[in-house]
Design goal:
By secondary structure, this protein is an all-alpha fold. It has 10 helices and no strands.
């Protein structure tokens, strides 16, 4: 347990700058969303337009940015490779399972922080419009984070198998492409009508005010029951990611 705490502290110390910058960016996005709603809300007060659709869109933008933040590689593996620590670590009394567990715990912490900022920011934005954040929307936020976590898991499988800088760049690119493919494959099994998204893309250029965006949500609503699979899916993704990282880290560099 002591070695895991040491590895966790080391991972957090090396990735602290990365996460601080990214989460500050997320907070700025929340602030931008609030400012956008404030400005457009003042204009709509004179016209009597409904801003609920625009408000919902802003909350989902926050969730998407949070997904990008938690799925971006924190650069610790590359730093270890450049410093020679990766090769040296195989001579230390620490198993690949402990290294993988540490990475998973850091990822879990980033997900928790990202989700907390997303929910708090979205709730604040909704409150500005006189509405509240419901459970269904929060569960949909979890699903959005799941999509980005799936991408990250697939990409990390390729990244952790690299043995030098050139291979790392190549594997990161390949992993990104495969990760996108994995997302497209998984979404094929979700009850989502993609034609609604296509229709929305056609309507957006024609919309003249944020209030008109309220009709977009009706085009591709997700069945409520799907949201309840978000948390179990997240646990599965993190579990598979841990196992995949474990096996990848067992490969000693040449």
């Amino acid at each position: 347990m002591k070695s895991i705490r040491s590895l966790f502290y080391r991972e957090m110390r090396l990735s602290a700058r990365h996460y601080i910058i990214r989460f500050l960016l997320l907070v700025l996005v929340v602030g931008f969303a609030a400012l956008s709603l404030l400005v457009t809300g003042q204009n709509s007060a004179h016209t009597g337009e409904d801003m609920s659709g625009f408000t919902v869109m802003l909350t989902y933008i926050i969730a998407v940015v949070a997904g990008v933040v938690i799925s971006e590689d924190n650069g610790v593996f590359k730093a270890d490779m450049d410093a020679g620590w990766l090769r040296y670590s195989y001579a230390l009394p620490m198993s690949a399972a402990k290294k993988a567990l540490t990475r998973t715990l850091v990822k879990l912490l980033s997900v928790a922080v990202g989700m907390a900022v997303t929910v708090a920011g979205a709730a604040a934005v909704c409150a500005m419009n006189g509405s509240s954040l419901d459970l269904t929307t929060i569960l949909n936020f979890v699903l959005i984070l799941d999509i980005f976590l799936l991408y990250d898991m697939v990409q990390q499988i390729f990244i952790l198998r690299a043995t030098d800088a050139d291979e790392l760049k190549r594997n990161k690119l390949i992993g990104g492409v495969v990760g996108v493919g994995a997302i497209l494959l998984v979404t094929e099994f979700l009850p989502i009508d993609i034609s609604g998204l296509e229709k929305a893309m056609e309507l957006i250029p024609e919309m003249k005010s944020p209030a008109e965006m309220s009709q977009l949500g009706e085009l591709f609503e997700l069945p409520e029951i799907v949201g309840y699979f978000g948390i179990p899916a997240m646990l599965v993704i993190l579990g598979v990611g841990f196992f995949a990282s474990w096996k990848a880290l067992e490969r000693r560099p040449d």
